[in-house]
Inverse folding.
């Protein structure tokens, strides 16, 4: 019995180490690698979006402060941007979920969802950055 437990533990350890191998994102060959690498692509796009967001939001807050120095209760570009960003997040998540669910039960679903998230996020990053061009 002890031999069986040790053998099972060894097999589990060996199996876990094969899953722990680093995927080749330069040339993914398996669906698993494509899914993992597309998730990393999305993470990178999301990081760029967050960096752009911080920069653009701060810039618009500063713009609001400078333009409306008199303290009037004028519309705020920063507030409008925050409102639009919250709506965009709902749109992004819902749209990509709808797109991916066309592959419900398939191993490609994560790749489809991640690719959608990456593409929409990259477009939004460009939109955000365009708000401060010429300011």
């Amino acid at each position: 019995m002890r031999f069986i437990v040790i053998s099972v533990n060894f097999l589990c350890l060996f199996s876990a180490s094969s899953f722990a191998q680093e995927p080749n994102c330069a040339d993914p060959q398996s669906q698993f690698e494509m899914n993992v690498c597309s998730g990393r692509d999305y993470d990178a796009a999301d990081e760029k979006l967050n960096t752009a967001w911080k920069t653009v939001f701060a810039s618009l807050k500063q713009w609001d402060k400078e333009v409306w120095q008199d303290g009037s209760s004028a519309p705020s570009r920063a507030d409008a941007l925050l409102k639009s960003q919250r709506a965009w997040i709902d749109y992004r998540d819902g749209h990509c979920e709808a797109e991916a669910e066309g592959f419900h039960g398939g191993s490609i679903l994560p790749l489809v969802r991640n690719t959608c998230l990456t593409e929409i996020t990259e477009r939004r990053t460009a939109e955000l950055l365009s708000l401060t061009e010429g300011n």
Remarks:
- The longest helix spans residues 31-67.
- The CA atoms of residues 42 and 118 lie 5 Å apart.
- The helical segments are 2-19, 31-67, 77-100, 109-130.
- The domain at 31-65+76-135 is CATH 1.20.1270.180 (Substrate Binding Domain Of Dnak; Chain:A; Domain 2).
